[in-house]
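input
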Amino acid sequence: MDKRLLSERDICTKYITPALRGSGWDEITQVREEVSFTKGRIIVRGKLVSRGKGKRADYILSVKPNIPIAIIEAKENTQAIGAGLQQGLAYAETLEIPFVFSSNGDGFVFHDRTGMSPTPEVSLALNEFPSPEELWARYCQWKGLSDDASAVALQDYFDDGSGKAPRYYQINAVNSTMEAIAKGQDRVLLVMATGTGKTYTAFQIIWRLWKAGKKKRILFLADRNVLIDQTMVNDFRPFAGNMAKLSTHAKTIERADGTSTDLTLALDKRRRIDTSYEIYLGLYQAITGPDESQKIYKEFSPDFFDLIVIDECHRGSAADDSAWREILAHFTSATQIGLTATPKETEYASNIDYFGEPVYSYSLKQGIRDGFLAPYKVIKVHIDRDVQGYRPVQGQLDRDGEEVEDRIYNAKDFDRTLVLEDRTKLVAQKVTEFLKQSGDRMAKTIVFCVDQEHAARMRQALINENADLVAQNHRYVMRITGNDKNGLDQLGNFIDPEAPYPVIATTSRLLSTGVDAQTCRLIVLDREVGSMTEFKQIIGRGTRVHEDTQKLFFTVMDFRGSTSHFADPEFDGEPVQIYQPGPDDPIAPPDDVPQTDIDGEPLSPEPSDDETVLIDPVDPLDPLNSKTGGGPIRKVYVDGVGAIIVAERVEYLDEDGKLITESLRDYTRKALQRQFASLDQFLKRWNGEGRKQAVFEELEAEGLPFDVIAAELGKDLDPFDLICHIAFDAKPLTRRERAESVKKRDAFTKYGPQAKAVLEALLEKYADEGVMDLDDLGVLKIAPFSGMGSVIELVRAFGGKPKFEQAVHDLQSAIYQESA
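output
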């Protein structure tokens, strides 16, 4: 057998796998082949929606399932032994795998990324591949893991037998956390973008530490009931019998699989704690409060818990900060893990100061690039009153008959201190118009408003614009805010992919965090968003991909310029912080110390409009409102002044995750020129490819589906002409023009009557329908070929299948002869 004639798969089967087996690797539990670890980025460009090619490693070697330590890239024997090394190193960096191998079947090139080998790269014979024990010993030395720590780091993941496996970044997060805790680190921060499965990741961490006997009593803290309840019945379900909620309110909760269960409670009606459980889940609000009697957590001894996990630990206001910080201070001896999507803080506090630098971060940009999160397009809508401001005419009266203060009102005033009803109606009209034009008026939509009163008015305006659908179901539009019980009761239905209603939810802040709205397709921003933290949270409402309903991307409709945050270099960067205390400084900045913003500029003692306001200062129903001595700020309502749209534009995410304004033609040109540097290079690739469709399939995998491009840029051109014309400004010919040119050259004279008739019909098929794979025998089964004879008869007319295929290839060459 000539090794140089074998395929890459044959090289793996006949040489690499036997070498692994001979070195003691277990093929069932330790060796995985052709491992896809990203899904491929979803690319949205106008009407174009496609999924790019995912990344796939030839081999991933693990000492135990989900504890990977080595990667192998295989190549055909016609290539060098180390030909796959650079590709393997790129994958290893993503997967955080230290040992990289490349092979062509003759041996291995081994690259040690730990920096602990005197020679980073060495060549090995096939029989010299390191054993699992050898690589694990190197790994432990690199990580500084003792024998005891190594045993903890090797603790099994939970496996329910369903085949569900954690994603690569979840594995990275879990393993990084396990190793940090095994080495004695007692404050750990994990940063994972909204929609990437923080709760599932937390479950695997808790499960492994619990099963290893490292942590025996565990507290999971969150700030919303829905997070606790759904966590208990879904991700934390394997803890059943050992788990209870710190609450006195019994509930029956529906699981993700449609079954239901009653929550187990750790508090009785007298708020006495049952201390027999091992896993406790609780709300900050339920176990603490301003009064000493509300501080239930103090009923536990300070050393009761070994581990505390704090979900959404990015809360930046002084009130929220004190809620979870005082609990953690009580259980200071416990290992504490903070989970957050957005660790950037306001001036009040920084969780990085408390937990330390993240042991692992997975950003929104990474999630979109990997295809696990949905990309989005942004529609910026500019209203004349927002752009130009509004100044009342002399003697202008408001709705109550009082004269409106004579000054210029701008976007920061609208719906906060001044209400222009015509502006509210215009926003509702544009949202409705978008839903109608999208072809899906049942697309789940969240409209973020200035406050609860604004959300109520927006609900009414949207109801009036969608009266036909509201008549079918009054829940089509609902306000879901903290003070609206009817709306809150529908929150579960809004986030349920199976529940059609409500469709549109108007809110102020309730839906900005902690709500898993998987099918949300439209986010409307009709209020300013002052901080990056809140902005990321809001965007996170739409980033979940829902394959079953084809929710592959979402749209942000911005009426207030809030998407200016996209231009911030920190939008998808590493976590940042504001306050940097010295060794003897308090964790939280003292109130009397002047604060600075991210640019180092002084901040006023009162939060400005550009900051995150977690307690709404203009909400008359907010009991904590103290900005005006306990009374609400009076709003001025002005009717009949009108509002119009002055500009709209659509922006897209490029492949680097940056928003750009660019035509589909410009985008396509740039993308093609990255693939083919010149027209000659493209023609060489084209002429060397027997199956022309393969060229376009490769381009489609990179986000360029030509049916969509042709629909917008050239319906009568085939993909060949589209590429030549768009990328290289070559004169395009339509399919019909190319077909007529072939006929004029009388290219079929050497064939018999039946073969000639087949080729002429194939040429017509190309001209009319753009069929590219003309040698596909399946084409001969349909009209008009089915009337000419059977497939066997038609192929026999050419003298057999090889001659038929050659004739078709000659036909394709004739079609593109002028260009080539």
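quick obs: Residues 316-320, 573-632 have pLDDT under 50 and may be disordered.
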